[in-house]
Every structure is written in structure tokens, then in C-alpha cells.
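Summary for the lay section of the report: proteins are chains of building blocks that fold into shapes. Here we show the chain for Benzoate 1,2-dioxygenase electron transfer component BenC and then a coded description of the shape we predicted for it.
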Amino acid sequence: MHKVALNFEDGVTRFVQMLPGETVADAAYRSGLNIPLDCRDGACGTCKCHCESGDYEMDGYIDDALSDSEAEARYVLTCSMRPESDCVVSVPASSEVCVRSQQADVHGEIVALERLSDSTLSFSVAGDQVRAMHFLPGQYVNVQIPGSDESRAYSFSSLVDAGAESVSFLIRVVPNGRMSGYLAKDAVIGDRLTLRGPFGSFYLRDILRPVLMLAGGTGLAPFLAMLEKIERDGSDHPVHLIYGVTTDTDLVGLEKLEGFAERIPNFTFSACVADEDSNWPQKGYVTHHMAPGHLNDGDVDIYLCGPPPMVEAVSAHMKAQQIEPAHFYYEKFSSSH
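The coded shape description reads as follows.
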């Protein structure tokens, strides 16, 4: 039997003893640790870590969860990783976040529902259990589709503070999508929803250097929650957000960003539209608007949330430009039906 050392980003190391044929995620869970994960079958990429040393086998995952270049660089999905020797694995989360807790369903009711554009809507859920939720800005929950056993993953776009009565979400309306279709056509105020979570290792860390945030479409949602925390706690370092969308109709939340820019001294933002026929003054992709000042000669923490092609494009751009940030945290998502 092999041992795996789990090195957490706060400097804490925990050792887990593997059983024959066991995955690292399962062994960690058995040992009282919960490496951030969701699907458990190599489809979501939530449990992505980096294997610093040791031999292992890994199969049964899809490219959207782990690209070929990531696999070559020894990134692993712990839900699929089976060690063949002693291994050292770096977990991109703090040990405190990974202390195992019992996941439970949280029930609440829809208290706000707004169609922001043809492609985007927001909704808010409130209730005693919702107010008691603990999550980090940037994390997400699985929201059960009413009348089914299916769920969809949505990032929080707000925090639960002492005076807050609800949590909010920002989602893309997907053609023939079950959850977005329900919210866009059938949902009414007072409908009951079930949330499960929180999940994910994409969350705001302590701000120790300049921060560059890159949002694609409804990937703006977790940054709105992060900015709430920054507004509350302050930042001694500049924070810049580049928000990229496909068409003009996808631009939402600009009023909120303008409000944050007024209230947070070190926060600035810009938005760009990829459509060449757009009337928006800034066109192109987020990579076109990453100025040297935002990168601070590499002494910068980059946060990225967007669809897989955007994540891959930004990663390729940074590699081509030899940009090596202090930290690069990302969450990639796909529109679910």
C-alpha cells in the first residue's frame, strides 16, 4: 500500500494511506479530508491537483476536465488518480477548506427573478437555511431542477452577510436548457429550490499582491461575490477585472461593476465584446486587453472564470507571452442542458 502526501496551499501537509485500487479523492475522504470535488467521475475538473512526485495511473476523464497539456504537466484529477508508488500531491486549496464536512441539502425559496438580457438572468434564494450557509466567494452550489433528480452548478454572485436575506446567482439562458428554461418561463416568486454545496477550489485568497480578474460571460458571477468581500475588507493592492462577452446583449452587470469601482479605491474594470459588429467601444477577447501594468512583471495573482475555450486561450496566451504569474486560479464551465 502506498502513501500520498497532500500539500495544501496554506503550508499544511496531510498523509493518507491508500488501499489497493483506491483513488486519491476516496482515500482522502476516508481519512477525514474532502479535496474539492463534485462529479467524482472525471467530468468537471473540480478536483484538479498537481502531482509533484511519484507514479500513478489515471483514466476515465474527459478533455474538458483535464487537457492533454495539463496531463503532460502532471496535473491530475484526484477522483481518477490511482497511485502506483508513494506520491506528493499539491492541492490548490487550504487545509481548512478541505476538512471534511457533511454535505446537506439546503432549502429556500425564490425571492427575486430578473431577466437581464435575452441571454442572461439572475435569481435570488432566501430562507433560514440559506442564511446559515458558509461558503467562500467564488465557490458554487448544485441547484436541483424542480421535479427531477438533476441539478445544475451555479456560482454565487453575492455573499451571505449578517444583514443579507438571500444569495444570488447569475446564469446563462441555454436553448432548451431544463434549468434555465424553468427559470425563464415557469418559475415564480415563492417557488422552492434545493441547493447542495458549497463546492470548488476557485475562491478568493488573501490579497498579497496585485490581482487580475478575467471573466467570460456569466463567469462574472463569482467575481461579483469576490468584489463584495473586497469592498467589505479592503485591499492594499490594485484589483483589475476584464469582462469579456460574445455579443452586446451578453453585457450585463455593468452597473454593479461601476458601483464597485466607485466604492473600492483600488478597483478598476473594463469590458470587451468579441463580435466584430458590436457597438461597444472595446472589441476582441480578454487577452487583447491584458496590459503590462495589469501583469506587474509577473507579481500578480490571476483569477479566470469562463467557458473551456476561453480558459485554454488565456493559458496559451500566457505561455506564448512567457507570462508566469505568482498564482493562476481558474474555473471553467460549460452550459448545461
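Put simply, here is one thing we learned. The mean pLDDT is 91.
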